[in-house]
């Protein structure tokens, strides 16, 4: 009885010997940029630390002022063939930032123009502003056995030191 129940359950799920289990991961066509802060940026802040005030006799010493941020808030902007997304982060030096712009489903290996910039909010200092041409490549997140149609995408790295460049997967 248990063997029959197992066979019926497996058949109902589409399982058969040698068949590959497919997930519903899917993919979204588009371009993704991963921004890495400059080497040492968090260790060499662009904002000078606030000095600790000297306590006066009538005031009890307290914890002191909060440490200065590693950098000013920054605006990150990614444009792909004129379509742009923008967001503000607390710092351009604290952590990596990932941004994506969705593209049409029918880009099929086309070259697209990409522009990525990072600018501080307060003094509008340009930390990075670079452009690149990138060729979309087809991928199958679940494997070709599961996805009849691939997803067209491209990934780039960005840093003030190296600029905008295709993501090196190896």
Report on this model:
It is a single chain. The protein is mainly beta. 6% of the residues lie in helices and 36% in strands. The protein contains 1 helix and 9 strands, in the order αβββββββββ. Strands 1, 4, 7, 8 and 9 form a 5-stranded mixed sheet that branches. Strands 3-2-5-6 form a 4-stranded antiparallel sheet, with no helix packed on it. The longest helix has 11 residues, at 2-12. The protein starts with a helix and ends with a strand. Residues 1-17 and 42-69 have low confidence and may be disordered.
Labels describing this entry:
mainly beta; 170 residues; four-stranded antiparallel sheet; 9 strands; disordered N terminus
Number of helices: 1
Approximate helicity band: under 10%
H/E series, N to C? HEEEEEEEEE
Which structural category fits the helices and strands?
mainly beta
Mean pLDDT: 75
Which stretches of 5+ consecutive residues score pLDDT under 50?
1-17, 42-69
Shape: elongated
Radius of gyration: 25 Å
The termini sit apart by 51 Å
Number of strands: 9
Hey, roughly how much beta strand do the residues contain?
35-45%
How does the major sheet shape up? 5 strands, mixed
């Amino acid at each position: 009885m248990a063997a029959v129940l197992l066979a019926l359950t497996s058949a109902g799920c589409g399982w058969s010997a040698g068949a590959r289990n497919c997930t519903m991961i899917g993919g979204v066509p588009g371009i993704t940029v991963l921004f890495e802060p400059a080497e040492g940026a968090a260790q060499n802040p662009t904002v000078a630390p606030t000095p600790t005030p000297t306590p006066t006799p009538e005031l009890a010493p307290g914890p002191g002022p909060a440490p200065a941020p590693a950098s000013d808030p920054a605006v990150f902007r990614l444009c792909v063939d004129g379509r742009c997304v923008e967001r503000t982060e607390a710092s351009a030096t604290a952590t990596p930032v990932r941004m994506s712009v969705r593209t049409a489903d029918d880009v099929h290996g086309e070259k697209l123009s990409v522009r990525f910039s990072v600018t501080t909010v307060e003094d509008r200092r340009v930390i990075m502003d670079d452009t690149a041409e990138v060729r979309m490549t087809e991928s199958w997140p679940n494997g070709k056995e599961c996805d009849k149609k691939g997803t067209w995408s491209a990934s780039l790295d960005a840093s003030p030191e190296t600029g905008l460049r295709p993501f090196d997967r190896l």
